[in-house]
Specification:
The chain is about 35% helix and about 30% strand. It is an alpha+beta fold. A five-stranded mixed β-sheet has the order 2-1-7-4-5, with helices on one face.
Length: about 140
């Protein structure tokens, strides 16, 4: 049975709590691990980030190319994205970003709450209900101690 998991980001700051919806994941099964949730979220975020980078690079390329229309994902757009800026276009890699997210979870830079209960381990299987919500609670290290 498929499930829809709502993911919310929550930050604490000087003006109070900032809570906003992040994404929704369609799940094939009601049983999933936090590692899989993080990995799926990272995949979506990396895809969005890379698409923005490619669109921006293609826009720059189009402004230099008056005779032809260059597609955003074409090899020409990717290879020539840095022309005129002196920088090469660097796309984010899912594997590297997921590893960083797993490390941040293990170092408790953020915690995950499933229906207001803290998830302890990356590989602890959890059950998602129809109304379930995961909160990514970002923690700020305290200075001075």
């Amino acid at each position: 049975m498929a499930a829809l998991l709502k993911i919310v980001d929550e930050h604490f700051g000087p003006t109070g709590t900032d809570r906003r919806p992040a994404i929704e994941l369609k799940l094939v099964s009601e049983r999933i691990t936090p590692r899989e949730i993080i990995e799926r979220r990272v995949e979506l975020e990396v895809e969005t980030l890379n698409n923005r980078k490619l669109a921006h690079a293609a826009g720059q390329l189009r402004s230099r190319s008056f005779l032809i229309d260059v597609e955003v994902t074409s090899p020409e757009a990717v290879l020539n994205a840095g022309l005129g800026t002196g920088r090469k276009l660097v796309l984010a890699r899912v594997e590297r970003e997921a590893a960083r997210a797993f490390q941040a979870f293990e170092k408790q830079r953020f915690i995950m709450l499933l229906d207001d209960k803290q998830i302890e381990g990356l590989d602890d299987e959890v059950t998602v209900m129809a109304e379930s919500q995961i909160v990514f609670l970002y923690l700020m290290p305290l200075k001075g101690g």
